[in-house]
Give the backbone structure.
Amino acid sequence: MLRALLTPLSWIYAEAAARRQRSKRPRHAPAPVVCVGNFTVGGAGKTPISRAIREMLGPGAHMLSRGYGGRAVGPLRVTPDMDAREVGDEPLLHAHDGPAWVARDRLAGAMAACAAGAHALVMDDGFQNPALHKDLNLVVVDPGFGVGNGAVFPAGPLRERLADGLKRADAIVFAHAWRADAGETPALQEWLHDFSKPMLNARIAPAADLPKGKLIAFAGLARPEKFFDTLEALGADLEEAVPYPDHHPYSEDDLSFLSQLAEERDAQLITTEKDAARLSPAWRARVAVLPVKARFEDEAALERLLAPIRSRMSAPHG
């Protein structure tokens, strides 16, 4: 009943998204642009995928994002010592890997990055943003979620009509949870039957060992249960799992509650890299972090997609 009530609003949202794509002519940046986006609202694994893409392209690649959750309008180059309340949590992770920028105006951000020496740009999100031309659109899909009920927001999770998004996608990347069966993708689902472009599998795997002893886990993600499931799959002695909303700004009250819970259970606090980026340095020192890394099943297929980007990186801007 709720979906039926919201469907007229989803039609309006979908038409507005389509009109935005039609009415805006994308501008080209001086350097090639790889966009790592998704079809749906919420997390699908874009950030670890975009970090892996940037690593493959090398130090000449700069990261560009909107800076969701931060106040900065930009263009602003992000440094690891900045505050997540200013630039957002994901750009801080990218800044630890190399040059990273936030800009509400993606074209202005791309121009600023190129002026600072970028030979390629990797966008973390922005698939639906028509201002900047993308040379390669990689759309990340969580195999366990797919496209949900297939309806556009607010009746469903889609940011635009699925057919419109599929037309612009150059490849789909299935971001599998660690220890999930990589063979079980939504490739047989009806929404992918007519998609003939590459479909890649990547696994979001832990990049460090768990700390010993009892753990209290907390996470403010679109799907925090994915983090908790990973801990359990690793054999963690998980005393409690505390979920928060996506991009949750942790208050002193939140952290005092978690600290007291850990003390009562004689356990250590643990969270994700994205959540740790939203903690103060003092609190960050008191919380264990489980980093993750995306590993592609077929790196040769990804390299073929990136080959035109690499060839342009070696050419001068212009």
User: Anything to note?
Assistant: The chain is about 35% helix and 20% strand. The first helix runs from residue 2 to 23.
